[in-house]
Amino acid sequence: MKTVLHKADTRGDANHGWLHSKHTFSFANYHNPERMNFGVLRVLNDDTVAAGMGFGTHPHQNMEIISIPLEGDLEHKDSMDNVAVIKSGDIQVLSAGTGITHSEYNKNKDQQVKFLQIWVFPNQQNVTPRYDQVTLNTADRKNQFQQILSPNPDDAGVWIHQDAWFNMTDLEQGKSLTYSVHEPKKNGVYVFVLSGDATINGQELNPRDGFGIWDTNTFEITANSNTELLLMEVPMAL
């Protein structure tokens, strides 16, 4: 088993006033050659957007972009004529493929939005752009894994053009779960702590810490307090 630890306070920090973003991996003005990616997981941004503010229309190409709202309402518009609002419990995916433009705004004028912006390199180039979102029952992740993303359109959650599986769990203090890697010969898992404290492979993790694990079939997670986790299984080879 191989591991890498990214403590919360080692992330890139970009505060633009209307946007406060913490970058786990190199992004925009934050560049760390040792923090470029975890396999095909390229971007993990922990974003807080001020009331009524947001990202104006901008382009993307050949990237799988996943948004996971944590608090508030985020309004999406794109060049495929999709207009939608995503909120906590929703998962949004945008397959940029041959190219799209989109905007993301805090829909509310009186509260901030917090969400995770995640980019994954696709396993196919120049696909037809695609948008999707689903609303999940967050109770289904209590003391168990809830799949929120996979490579398969017929599976639970959203799907992307990559052999990746994302899960979320909400563990009560003292509870343990064993994660089994879908593709142990090629995939690793990046665990991101949303809240609480957990131990994996003897490593204690705290809020907003990231922990990558690969070259293993399984690993165990134990919650040291009530803990919310996001697990992103991705191919390690670009």
Describe what is shown at a glance.
With 238 residues, the protein is mainly β. The protein has a single domain, classed as Jelly Rolls (Sandwich), CATH 2.60.120.10.
Description:
Keywords: Iron, Metal-binding. The chain has 238 residues and is an all-beta fold. Strands 1-20-17-22-15-13-14 form a seven-stranded mixed sheet, with no helix packed on it. Strands 2-3-4-11-6-9-12 form a seven-stranded antiparallel sheet, with no helix packed on it. Strands 5-10-7-8 form a four-stranded antiparallel sheet, with no helix packed on it. The chain is globular. The protein starts with a strand and ends with a strand.
Rg from alpha-carbon coordinates: 17 Å
* Domain count: 1
- Quote the distance from N terminus to C terminus: 20 Å
What's the pLDDT, averaged over the residues?
97
